[in-house]
Amino acid sequence: MTDATTPAPDALAYDLTINGRTHSVPSAWLGESLLYVLRERLGLPGSKNACDQGECGSCSIQLDGQLVCSCCVMAADAVDAEIRTVEGVAPEGELSDVQQAFLDEGAVQCGFCIPGLIVSVHDLLEKDPTADQLTVREAISGNLCRCTGYGRILQAVETVQERRAEGGAA
Amino acid sequence: VSIARPTDLDGALAALAERPDANLLAGGTDLQVEINLGHRRPDAIVALRRVEELRAHDASNGAIELGAGVTYGTIERDLADLVPGLAMASRTVGSPQIRNAGTIGGNLGTSSPAGDCLPWLAALDAEVVLVSAADGERVLPIADFITGPKRNARRDDELIRAVRVPRVAGPQHVAKVGPRNAMVISVASLAIVVDTDHRRVRVGMGSVGPVPVRPTAAEDARQRRARLGLDDDRRRRPARASRPPAPTPPRPSTTTAAPPPTAVTRSGCSPPAASGGAWDDRRHHACP
Is A30 in contact with B3 (Cβ distance < 8 A)? Predict the structure, then answer.
């Protein structure tokens, strides 16, 4: 028996810092991935689960500023890290410039891979704002789009770069 | 059920001494996946990502020592001058996301026949530094450390502290063959290090046997030819692997049959820009 406040004997309780906010995980199994905890325990379903083995990139997040697959992170090991998910790339109810460019360029087809791609593109442009197209391709090589809509996705990244260069704030 | 999150080596060893049944967690790209897929159900975890000593590297002596917690991303970005072949190998691992998390110690600890760093480490006769609270350090050559597919000589109370390789002059190259350029498990891979100080070509081959293959007979033959001044002979003689190929697919999704080792050794013997080069090839045929 578990309830929200008393962990079961073999359960763990810990806090995670996600998008600048502290979230309590009152009762979780040791082996749960960060992706599972985000989606199933904390109501943050933006990170998607497709492969659960680090091959598709649809669960991409930043952990202490590093782009990683949240399905490969043990949630209980992420306790003192800064976690940034797709929910944290823009204020509630608004779109980030990357999200806006994806919409403007028609880069979204079925949409499943898009949250992971948005996080990957934010991560890339924070580290290398003027990345050339080869660098962009390599940076998103871990994000699989099975609609194969890569052309428009690459165009969207270019659009973000142009808009930021024209002086628009990130 | 417990998880220890030590911040230094002593803390990690103490935690492991207390729970030798614990699973060691570094980047999570192997262990967490096994848990996600239901292949493993840990009762205790010793998480290593905060352990400062494991993230260090040192090249002040004749040898190069890399802490077990150094990630593929760090090797690829920061250590390419120091260990060029290893940087090439690291760049072929998974995706940027995986390279930011996965570690060289994890590659050794998992001991997969397809481990991307292992051919280069085998070619250089790397030494694996193991440490336990009870017995301190012991050092094993990689050939003695990896005992079979996903099996190695690490005791339950030990952790891999570091891996050591000699400094070598001369060019290095790593090639990897897979169904596509990014995000692939190697079907066959090859590391070649030209050790000019010892006038020897060192070779390591991955995914073509239960453990990384070191074709020493071919290396010896090459060295004899060099001594006898037969280097002008440009005919490529494919190296013959010294063990029968019996690779174990590391993930259920991998079903592609391995080409014979000779195919990779031929391409690996060509100049670096030729196909199969893990470095330039990936720049020129960028994925996805």
Answer: yes
State which residue of chain B sits closest to A142, comparing Cα positions. B95
Beta-carbon separation of A54 and B41 below 8 A: no
Q: CA–CA separation, B207 vs B186, rounded Å?
A: 7
Span A33-70, pLDDT tens digits? 999 999 999 999 999 999 999 999 999 999 999 999 99
What are B63's two structure tokens? Answer: 């040898």
Residues in contact with B251: Cβ distance below 8 Å, sequence separation at least 6, in sequence order? A53, B185
Cα of B282 to nearest chain A Cα, Å:
9
Report CB contact under 8 Å: B286, A141. Answer: yes
pLDDT tens for B224-270 read: 887 777 665 555 555 554 544 455 545 544 444 444 455 455 444 44
DSSP strand pairing (A12-18 vs A82-84): parallel
Residue among B119, B230, B226 at smallest CA distance from B176:
B119
Flag if B286 and A137 touch (Cβ within 8 Å).
Answer: yes
Q: Which of A23, A58, A57 has its CA nearest to residue A43?
A: A23
**SS3 of B139, please?**
strand
Contacts 24+ apart (CB under 8 A), A2-6: A2/A27, A3/A27
Interface of A with B in 23-62 (CB under 8 A): 29-31, 33, 52-55, 57, 60
pTM, full prediction: 0.87
Q: Mark A137-167 as b/e (b = at least 16 C-beta within 10 Å).
A: bbbbbbbbbeeebbeebbebbebbbebbeee
By DSSP bridging, strand B127-132 and strand B158-166 are antiparallel
Q: Give the span between the Cα atoms of B121 and B85, in whole angstroms.
A: 9
Answer whether A112 touches B (CB < 8 Å): no
Dist. CA B76–CA B78, nearest whole Å:
6
Given a contact cutoff of 8 angstroms between Cβ atoms, the answer to whether B139 and B128 are in contact is yes
B101 half-sphere exposure, CB direction, 13 A CA radius: 30
User: Quick one: tokens of A165?
Assistant: 């260069």
Q: Convert the pLDDT of each residue in B206-225 to its tens digit.
A: 999 999 999 999 899 888 88
